[in-house]
Fold:
Amino acid sequence: MKWVEAVVHTTTIGSDLISEELMMLGATGTEIIDRTDVPDPRKAGVYWELYDPKMLEEMPEDVLVKGWFELNEQTPDVISNVKQRLNELKNDEFIDFGTLELDMQNVADEDWSENWKKYYKPFRIGSHLVVKPTWEPYEAQVDDLIIELDPGMAFGTGTHETTNMCMQLLEKHLQDGMRVMDVGTGSGILAIAAARLGAKDILAIDIDPSAVKVAIENVELNGVKEQVRVVVGDLCKSEAMPCDLAVANIVADAICMLAGPLTRHLEKDRLLICSGIIREREQDVMNAATEAGYTLFDRIEKGEWVALALKNEGK
Structure:
């Protein structure tokens, strides 16, 4: 089995919480490396002769939290979740988490950013959607709606529970001719799925220019650029459009923040499909959604993750 090592730069006070976050996001184990754990030789009662004098000198200035993740087809999505969660924690008003810089390396000393592809095979989601990696052969069946995908390092391979559940809800609730906004599009997989399912006008937004580049390539690869427009931006500060359905596979805090602004673009009685929600944060999302004028219309869960379809009741 191959493993990817994620190394987060943090502080002593933040290290235990970062360790817990990595475990919740799928790490099989963690390790904390902290200079303060090494006894100070200047203090009375410390038997420094029991320690290598170079130990303290060679330890990093930052506190490091290492987490190990299994290398498989979900690796890019899992690492994207880690990055998104670290970005959330940077805004914490009560705890100094430090820089929260993330380093990645492969414990087996292989190129993990390419090696995971060997585990990524064509697979079906729902009744008709089929995600096919660009490098894998697949013999289409009758009524298959095929999504050709090379996600690169952008979030959205379709294998992660959050993306998978969004696609299930799209297949269930999207109707022909709908206008759709995909907020935080990542690889573009949900926007392409919406096009395959009959949406006529789709705006895909992501704040990350690298993700937008990947999404544009996948949109062109699937021949849906007439239906899907991909832009760099923040929904609260940039381009948007009136829509009959919105989908946001991001993180709980971002959904809470965007639920209100989205009501300005989402038609009354239409649905916001959202995921990226750890079960412990579901009630926070529902509280924000209720305050913004949504009611719960549909819900599914897989593992530790929840996806919601919220109806915009209007205020």
Remarks:
- DSSP finds nine helices and 14 strands in the chain.
- Residues 44-53 have pLDDT under 50 and may be disordered.
- The first helix runs from residue 12 to 24.
